[in-house]
User: Fold this.
Amino acid sequence: MSLLIKNIGELFDGYKIIKNTSIYIENGKIKSIGKEEKADEIIDASNKFVMPGFVDCHTHAIFSGYRAFEIEWKIEGLSYKEIAERGGGITYTVEQTRKASKEKLKKETMERIEEMIKHGTTTAEIKSGYGLDTENEIKMLEVINEIKNNAAIDIVPTFLAHATPKGMEADDFVDIVIEEMLPEVGERKLAKFCDVFCEIGYFSVEQSRKILMEAKKYGMLPKIHADEFSCMGCSRLAAELKAASADHLLMTSEKEMELLADAGVVATLLPATPFVLNEEYPDANKMLRYGIEIALATDLNPNCYVTNMQFVVQLACYKMRVKPIEALKAATINAAKALKMEKEVGSVEVGKKADILIMDVPSHLFIPYKVGVNLIEKVIKNGKVIYSQQ
Ligand SMILES: [Zn+2]
Assistant:
């Protein structure tokens, strides 16, 4: 099977813009760029913008129970704590997710993945973290792995130590994570990464270090939810452990930025979260000045229901003043780095998977320009069209 995408008006290859070019694909991989080889199938991309598939490197896509009922409370200005007291928040999601059968969880998550695909995502990470007991965390990871084996796109499973269940001390929960959860996740190879919500009221730096060091023994690579509400040393820990990424980073100090840059930790920024919470955005330009590589992701979760990476790019451009090229780089090749997949996906380069988006606009500048419109015409994964607008 071979495919030629010819007459490409503008190509963003993951790093730079190339005008008037072509991509030749054989057996799902990119074989050559700029050469019009004979192919079984041809797509004419005249006046179109072509780019690598989006890599959504931070999602909580698996959960049960939508929280649309919180929207009016949020608009009224109720705090996270007040919403939790009225029966919303993470406690609601944990209850619903524990109740849900594997079939129900799978069906609901697959619907979200279909939405992600329609908007151009060809690789997605999915975290556990709404079970908060061994049985339900394992259930979530089993479903993520089933989806990984069946979905049209690449799925990357992560074990997340998200919060301590009601009525339990964090230290006791950390013991359960270390004695029960990680051994099973590790032995059954259910997760590539281990992530921790390092934050006041969740897990301390010490507790996070303990969990991530233990996970390393099973070959799981560290990731950290760091500095979302406070700067208490979590991104410092990410640098110390050479984590694949430190995520959120709304409150990160300059000293910590320096450490992240030196350690080569990717900073995954999630602008949809401050958008739905009406909060400040992370200082992406300062991070770039420190030489940190930034990635972008949706943070799709019941509190921030965003499946569209084009919208995340728009937020990065307008709210974080990131240039369109930098934002697209962050949403593709740098996001692939945050998942340690930069050798396979995230850019249009010879030898890589042919994960390619064709958009019905003449240039990359139209992605931030045409706000709120799905610009996708075709989504190609491993050389096959998996979504077409017509
Ligand atoms: Zn998250």
